[in-house]
Amino acid sequence: MLSMTFAMIKPEAVAIPYITKVIWDEILVNKLEIIGAKRIHLNREMAKKLYAIHEGKLFYAYQRLCFK
């Protein structure tokens, strides 16, 4: 059965080319198939939509504290 996962590489990792390469290599070594990739700058509204499914959970509260 095929399953799909969303992964986001955060700016701190992308800022260091070696770390980005290590992440991509790990993805490929583990035989995961990348079906799409793009680089975006996540603004507050986009982040709100992305994390909407976590609203009301401890994780969501932590995000709100960190990104105020």
What would you say this structure looks like, in words?
- With 68 residues, the protein is mostly helical.
- It folds into 2 domains: 8-37, no CATH class; 39-68, no CATH class.
- It has helices at 11-14, 17-29, 44-50, 58-66.
- The longest helix is centred in the middle third of the chain and has 13 residues, at 17-29.
- The radius of gyration is 14 Å and the shape is globular.
- It starts with 10 loop residues before the first helix and ends with a helix.
Concise account of the structure shown:
The chain is built from four helices and no strands. The chain has 68 residues and is mostly helical.
Structural class, from secondary structure content?
Answer: mainly alpha
The largest sheet is: none
Q: Give the tally of β-strands.
A: 0
Poorly predicted residue ranges = none
Element order, helices and strands? HHHH
Compile the SSE list and pairings:
Elements: H1 11-14, H2 17-29, H3 44-50, H4 58-66
Tag the structure with descriptive keywords.
NDPk6, single chain, globular, kinase, 68 residues, metal-binding, 2 domains, nucleoside diphosphate kinase activity, mainly alpha, 4 helices, transferase
